[in-house]
From TrEMBL:
Annotated InterPro entries: PGBD
Domain PiggyBac transposable element-derived protein intervals: 1-104
Sequence segments annotated as region (Disordered): 131-150
Protein name, per record: PiggyBac transposable element-derived protein domain-containing protein
Signal peptide start-end: none
Superkingdom, taxonomy of origin: Eukaryota
Amino acid sequence: MKRGDLDYQLSDQGISFFKWKDNRSAHFLLNYHGNDTCNFRRRLKDGTKIDVTAPIVVKDYNGHMGGIDKADILHAIYDRDRKSKKWWHRLFFAMLEMAYINSYIAYVEVHREKMSSLEYKRCITKGLLAKSKPQPKRKGRPKSNGDEQNFVQKREEKEICLFLMMVV
């Protein structure tokens, strides 16, 4: 196959399989698009541009993958892959980082404000710390909640330590 060649097969259930040659072969399995194709320009290594025929799914993918690339770049800048003995710690922090990146992208889209992701993370941290109030330290003995029942028990016999008897 040469660059721009396309091979596809359709199933009876409406599932399409595409094999398309660009720099390498790309495979697509989908049920949304049919066997439609489109032309778009691709740049070669030497800088020249050529028209290439491709499945319409390639155009849709390239049009919507910008957000994914942006999130991957932001994740790679301040990656916090912490080692942990508990497997769920890494999963928790990865999800927390993903939520932070998504909120940063949404914030920049809405406010159209130039702010680095590190500045945004600092603002979030300051906001969370400002909302929480420090617990006041209590002086003295902690209060009993009333559930404990302590009674003095009377001892009938006094026991003498054997070690003390030997010394005396």
